């Protein structure tokens, strides 16, 4: 019997046996005959059974998007779950060069383009597909790629590699946009987007006043993008801004191409990462939108949201798909990244990826739990930056009650008591919590701009209408509605113009 | 320097393996997706113990067959050209890297303790370039 006295001699014999990663034996759970080749959340599958298992998850998520009412009523067995043909209009696929979006292209092509699908769920589908093309659901399928190299120093374009990958699918039309197009009104007009913002808007720091005057903007869209990113106070804010610009460019491209649906390639793991990092930055009110949202009539969906990264990796390898390695990883390998390791997004990703290795079901639980979350209270306004809903209660009051900062490190502007509701700029008042935090958070390095003017994306100008340059108020804060608000406050004391 | 293609193995002292990289992993290995390597068939003996080592310390007297754990360390020492922290964490591959041995998930083959055989194909797929 082992005792503390002879631990060393018996240590080898008494090592705890390694916990098995699967529940039963190593044969396929589905067909029960073939030798298992992959473990997915404690279940073993052979390669032939792996494909339809993953494909079913994709089709189920898509069916919920295309025909939500039928899905709720249908009691059809799982094998028959699939998208209906009720979709109208065009489809836009967001392609980042990463694993999820590469798989998204492959799955959409297999489901909606190829003549016969060897993994079709039923004999009826096979006979219908024999000899003729499967009827397409959407009229036109396009792939959109947003080139981000301008946001990084010493990084190269990836458009040619992206083009080579998308060329595998001749039925897909590739659209390439650039991150700096968010600051280019000419691009906006070329896409035929309406309404026309007329002029660009800039943000005046530190007052957060909006100024609309195209003559004051820097020369090129790239320079505006770099100024915008340089103004972000933390590296987390930079990453947040790049993601926000990318998402909204994709959504605007969907509008420009009359696409009714925009599909993104976020996997279950990527979704869990974005949910947790979004909540960490104060985006809990928009948890539902991270999964699925409707924006100006465009349904934005992530149909791989039930497919984990391990399944994605296996699919990628067994289908011979390629990725364009993500820029920040290539950027990291060149040793030029400063502080990227400490962003909330990166830390969350490392945590979730580590969690998935030993507790894969927990990552799934994160996404499932967030799916059930419902924000308290409604919303009647949209954030001009991220275009998502803002809680009805005042973001400013909330931040004033909960913000904690060391007094000694605060700038003179921050040390003054919080401004009253009337003195807060219109821009600040309309921001949602995470966007407001993005602009106002402070790090030890304090790398952002404290003063100056910052160009804003074109869609922000729309939120403030055709804003003309306003007079400075008594506090020196530029507010688009200061004149109208002042008039409203003193209207009872004004003489009628007739008297 | 890229290792030369090893000749047909007529000796039991080395193992000829095919290493494949996917999902962007090739960036860490000279941007090559496929490598043919030749590794020792047995893990080299550890350095001789110091005089202060306890006699009860377990020291392997016979070399053990090369396994995937050894292969990972061998790759780090011989063919890894970029940042090691993107490939390894501790004594094994970094979380987020799927390893397949002869087209089978390494978790079904005993993970790092799988004993390699001549002609095995080991695939490393990065899941870090997600989305």
From TrEMBL, chain A:
Pathway: tRNA modification; 5-methoxycarbonylmethyl-2-thiouridine-tRNA biosynthesis. The keyword tRNA processing applies. GO terms for biological process: protein urmylation; tRNA wobble position uridine thiolation. GO terms for molecular function: nucleotidyltransferase activity; sulfurtransferase activity; tRNA binding. It comes from the Eukaryota. One of its GO terms (cellular component) is cytosol. It is found in: Cytoplasm. Transmembrane segments: none annotated. Gene3D superfamilies: HUPs (3.40.50.620). Keywords: Cytoplasm, tRNA processing. InterPro entries: CTU2, Rossmann-like_a/b/a_fold. Belongs to the CTU2/NCS2 family. Plays a central role in 2-thiolation of mcm(5)S(2)U at tRNA wobble positions of tRNA(Lys), tRNA(Glu) and tRNA(Gln). May act by forming a heterodimer with NCS6 that ligates sulfur from thiocarboxylated URM1 onto the uridine of tRNAs at wobble position. Prior mcm(5) tRNA modification by the elongator complex is required for 2-thiolation. May also be involved in protein urmylation. HAMAP family: CTU2. This is Cytoplasmic tRNA 2-thiolation protein 2. It comes from Tulasnella calospora MUT 4182.
Automatic annotation (TrEMBL), chain B:
The keyword Transmembrane helix does not apply. The modification 1-thioglycine is found at residue 131. The lineage of its organism: Eukaryota, Fungi, Dikarya, Basidiomycota, Agaricomycotina. SUPFAM superfamilies: MoaD/ThiS. This is Ubiquitin-related modifier 1. Its main location: cytoplasm. The keyword 4Fe-4S does not apply. Gene3D superfamilies: 3.10.20.30. Pathway: tRNA modification; 5-methoxycarbonylmethyl-2-thiouridine-tRNA biosynthesis. There is a cross-link at residue 131 (Glycyl lysine isopeptide (Gly-Lys) (interchain with K-? in acceptor proteins)). One of its GO terms (biological process) is protein urmylation. It is found in: Cytoplasm. Keywords: Cytoplasm, Isopeptide bond, tRNA processing, Ubl conjugation pathway. It comes from the Eukaryota. Belongs to the URM1 family. CDD domains: Ubl_Urm1. One of its GO terms (cellular component) is cytosol. Acts as a sulfur carrier required for 2-thiolation of mcm(5)S(2)U at tRNA wobble positions of cytosolic tRNA(Lys), tRNA(Glu) and tRNA(Gln). Serves as sulfur donor in tRNA 2-thiolation reaction by being thiocarboxylated (-COSH) at its C-terminus by the MOCS3 homolog UBA4. The sulfur is then transferred to tRNA to form 2-thiolation of mcm(5)S(2)U. Prior mcm(5) tRNA modification by the elongator complex is required for 2-thiolation. Also acts as a ubiquitin-like protein (UBL) that is covalently conjugated via an isopeptide bond to lysine residues of target proteins such as AHP1. C-terminal thiocarboxylation occurs in 2 steps, it is first acyl-adenylated (-COAMP) via the hesA/moeB/thiF part of UBA4, then thiocarboxylated (-COSH) via the rhodanese domain of UBA4. Residues 38-67 are annotated as: Disordered.
